[in-house]
Predict the 3D structure of the following.
Amino acid sequence: MENKDIRRANLGRLINEYGTIRALADVVDTAPNYISEIKNGVRDMGHKLARKIEERTGKQSGWLDQLQEDDMSSDDVIVASSIDELAEKIGELETEKLHSLIAKALELHGRKKAT
């Protein structure tokens, strides 16, 4: 999962916590449509905005950049330092997990192409 995807997921958490995009935008002092565009993948969240959101919502610096515990299990994390190493590790997955990973990747790719 890329950092922009982690930030987007955590932004969704904050929107849920504050109830609406407008409520979060008011706290952060940012236009609601800008927050909405980030949430919907139209824009990516930059470093300065990420730190501003964390500061204004009382989250520790870097919180937006970290997977939260319910986003992953140790079985869901694959760490590789190269494409070849990643391919090797993916090739070792059980068939069901491999199919799930491929389906998720295709879903994300389809969303990316649509934007």
Remarks:
- The chain has a mean pLDDT of 86.
- Residues 78-114 form one domain.
